[in-house]
Amino acid sequence: MTFEQLLGILSDLHPEVDFEREQHLIDERILTSFDVVAIAAELMEGYGVELTAADILPENFNSARALFALIERLEQGA
């Protein structure tokens, strides 16, 4: 998965948000719990990224960069 693909997923959910700059997606409630579930489902079903409950932490979803870093870690461990 590329960072651009991730930005596409995020932008589909909230086209009004600048995901390249925003650093407080969870803290400022830009992403809801439903959004996190939708993102996790898309990553797992569409891209084969295996997320566990331990991965669903606010710090992993607070920015697109943090989420992409998590994806990279998971892909390297696969």
Topology summary:
Elements lengths: L2 H11 L19 H15 L10 H4 L2 H14 L1
Description:
This protein has helices spanning 3-13, 33-47, 58-61, 64-77. By secondary structure, it is an all-alpha fold. The chain has one domain (3-77): Orthogonal Bundle (Non-ribosomal Peptide Synthetase Peptidyl Carrier Protein, Chain A). It is 56% helix and 0% strand. The radius of gyration is 11 Å and the shape is globular. The mean pLDDT is 95.
Short summary:
Helices cover 56% and strands 0% of the residues. It is mostly helical and 78 residues long. The protein is globular and about 30 Å long.
- Under the CATH scheme, which architecture would be assigned? Orthogonal Bundle
Number of strands: 0
* Whole-number count of domains: 1
What is the CATH topology?
A: Non-ribosomal Peptide Synthetase Peptidyl Carrier Protein, Chain A
Rounded radius of gyration (Å): 11 Å
Termini gap? 13 Å
Question: Rough shape?
Answer: globular
Largest sheet: none
- Fraction of residues in helix: 55-70%
In round numbers, the mean pLDDT is 95
**Number of DSSP helical runs:** 4
State which percent range the strand residues make up.
under 5%
CATH hierarchy class name: Mainly Alpha
**What is the string of helix and strand elements?**
HHHH
Structural class: mainly alpha
The unreliable regions are none
